[in-house]
Design brief:
alpha+beta, 31 residues, 1 helix, 32% strand, flat
Length: 31
């Protein structure tokens, strides 16, 4: 599944992105 995260450098983004990648998601992030 593809996921887009806006605010990737924020508190939630910094925690959430590594977990999503580890779970196998394709993450596109925008700071």
């Amino acid at each position: 599944m593809k996921i887009f995260i806006a605010g990737a450098s924020g508190t939630i983004g910094q925690v959430l992105i590594p977990q999503l990648v580890k779970a196998g998601y394709a993450v596109t992030a925008l700071s």
